[in-house]
Request: fold
Amino acid sequence: MSAQLFAGDVTVGDTVGELVVTPTEITLFRFSAMTWNPHRIHFDTPYAATEGYPGPLVHAHLHGSYLARLVVEWAGPRSRLTRFRWQNRQYAVPGDELRITGTVTSVDGRLVSCELAETNQRGETCAPGWATVELPEKNS
Amino acid sequence: MTALIDEAYERARAGVGKVQEIPLGVLAERDVQRFSLVVGHADGPYQDRAAAADLGHDGLLAAPLYLTAVLGWETGPAEDDLLADGNSTTPLGDVDVAGLRLMGGGQDLTFHEPVVAGLDVVMHAEVTAVTRKEGRSGPLLVIEVHRRYVDATDGRLLVECHESFLAR
Reply:
């Protein structure tokens, strides 16, 4: 479990930790199964090749899940994610090293907003994201 | 290809503004746990009831994207009724996309209440806009969907999601 941040603990420009994940074909298979997603692009390498990809594609919502995970782990279990958005920019395949990072962009009382990015080992942005979390008061 | 996109555009536009109410049922603890595990929430309130209760939750906490990442909450079509690429012919409920392939473009989520295992959830889904565009590899549709997830027992709004899909 991650540590707990409190209101007043962060300032604009702080980094939002770092998360590095390397999804495998098993990761993609299990994500497809859990989300009841039968699209072959996510588990069938020969099929993915017919669409010009070097391997099955990491799901859009898995990219989003990694971005959201960084924020909630950084903020701590008593914080509350209130807003989160992300976009898909660049595909990823099993074996790609995905680095998720973020920076605090605004602090308004207990509400902290962050800009996030998931990049691959070539430095390409696969998915940018934005999140707002509500931190607890220290004495709450 | 252009004719197919044009046909899909007209069909999808006919579904704009219609709200579909889809009961998701009671969120099963094991499903909530498994999704969390796949995305990396391997402990704490996502996996341990006592940890969730310590935070005031009545059940295991769902990962933020759990509700909005699951594509199908019902049994779904038989395999023979899927497209050759595995996709459903009706990935957006009864909105007709004429067999086009959909790709998720991103989501914009607002979290109103914690989502925990044991909640009985209903989803209200509406296609809010369909736009025809010229992409680098030809014409495509951008389909905007708004979903509201509410507690079936008291109508509390849990999560709102605006999602865009690219259809080719």
